[in-house]
Design a protein that fits this description.
Layout: H1 7-10, H2 45-61, H3 70-80, H4 82-85, H5 89-102
Helix pairs in contact: 2-5, 3-5
């Protein structure tokens, strides 16, 4: 049963029977199945190794420091290498922290 007038004027809620349902299956986008070989947003093993090498270089250049501040090291590496500037600093700090712990 279709009632006249829009729901806002009649003061009632819309019911599913008020809506016209159409078959728009040809309008739907095809589902995208993730590819197993597709790159992810995580750092690749080669990128991690390069980061470890750069951390070691940073440590050698800063032997005079009494302790290692991960935040300061992350900031220094983030500013020194353009490919790291593409990442947000906090995300990069987490990557540096993970790489530093595996050294």
């Amino acid at each position: 049963m279709v009632r006249p007038g829009p729901a806002s004027q009649t003061g009632r809620k819309r019911e599913s029977s008020d809506l016209e349902l159409e078959d728009n299956s040809d309008m739907k986008k095809p589902k995208v199945v993730p590819d197993k070989d597709a790159p992810t947003s995580q750092v690749s093993p080669a990128g991690t190794e390069e980061l470890k090498t750069r951390i070691k270089k940073y440590l050698e250049e800063n032997r005079s420091l009494k302790f290692i501040d991960i935040d300061e090291m992350s900031k220094n590496l983030h500013e020194a290498y353009p490919e790291y500037r593409r990442r947000k600093l906090n995300v990069f700090k987490g990557q540096v922290d993970g790489a530093f712990k595996t050294l």
